[in-house]
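Hey,
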Amino acid sequence: MITNKPNWYAVYTRCRHEKQVASFLAGQNIEAFVPLRREWSQRQDRKLTIQVPALPGYLFVRCALYAETRALIKRASGVLRLVESAGRPAVIPERQINSLRAALANSFNAEGHPYLQIGDRVRVARGPMIGAEGYLVRVAENRHRLVIAVDYVNQALSVEIDDYCVEPVR
């Protein structure tokens, strides 16, 4: 379906090619977003913080997906395919992209999480991640993790959050 309105689409890439593909697409005036999380890296003499893909193998592009644009995306070195649903590129809801951005910008403890299909959908009502939506998973007594799932790519991100900061989504 061709539309003039730009939407978010998921792009599946070769392992460790997410940043390279995003850089190429940015040079072609296509908005790209690689969700990056921070983690500690141990060197021989020190520990430092590095950024690694939060959803390995995936990046997101925002564009009006004309045939020329689709061909340009697929032509990028490292791109394997656009993520599809029912034979068409799957539109990723903007609220999911915004939730990923909020969680990654305001959390150091983000980590990959198995994609969930069941559980309570919640929205963060307080704190720096206000407005982020996801699934709430209880890990231990008085300890909760908010899981932000991205449709169609079967990937998710998990961050620790206090139970009083979330409310059910109706």
